[in-house]
Specification:
Distance between the termini: 30 Å
Mean pLDDT: 93
Shape: globular
Radius of gyration: 15 Å
Order of helices and strands: EHHHEEEHEHEE
Structural class: alpha+beta
Strand order of the largest sheet: 1-2-3-4-5-7-6
Largest sheet: 7 strands, mixed
Strand content: 25-35%
Number of helices: 5
Low-confidence stretches: none
Number of strands: 7
Length: about 160
């Protein structure tokens, strides 16, 4: 596996990976109606445009296995981990941890003191294992459908180069 920075040409694979992963992996914790609201099939082209813009602004990495994108993650310059998704066929292989560790290194190099995210029910235990703590349980609305997620935070107690 190789981790590299995001390139705009990655976006079609990333959006497809997001859709397939949400519908395959998160179905253990969310209803079909909630999955369809979270990752609607009809938003692919719009999502490609919007995500390309935000991923170019953010610190964004992709994980590749034999030239196939198997995961991606991005973080704002203020330390908010916006998206982290791993291909449905590559779960539990250390890819998510490697991506988060790469972002954490970037956060430390920016001298940030914390990282935050909004984790799904499914992802919450993963983030807890990496030292994130729940700040608040949230109910968000997508397309008129309510979904539960968790605002989480991790304090960074040291910096690169300190």
């Amino acid at each position: 596996m190789k981790i590299r920075t995001f390139d705009e040409s990655d976006i079609a694979q990333i959006v497809l990976l997001f859709y397939e992963t949400v519908h395959a992996i998160n179905k253990q914790d969310y209803t079909q109606e909630q999955l369809d609201a979270w990752a609607p099939k009809d938003e692919g082209m719009l999502r490609q445009k919007v995500w390309t813009e935000s991923m170019c602004r953010n610190i964004t990495y992709v994980a590749e296995n034999n030239s196939e994108i198997v995961g991606f993650a991005d973080m704002t310059s203020t330390g908010h981990l916006d998206r982290l998704y791993i291909h449905k066929n590559f779960q539990r292989q250390g890819i998510a941890s490697a991506l988060v560790n790469t972002l954490e290194t970037a956060a430390r190099s920016l001298r940030l003191t914390e990282m935050s995210t909004e984790a799904s029910i499914t992802a919450k235990p993963f983030f807890e294992c990496l030292g994130f703590q729940v700040v608040q349980r949230q109910v968000i609305e997508r397309r008129g459908i309510e979904l539960v997620n968790f605002r989480m935070k991790k304090y960074l107690d040291n910096y690169v180069g300190k």
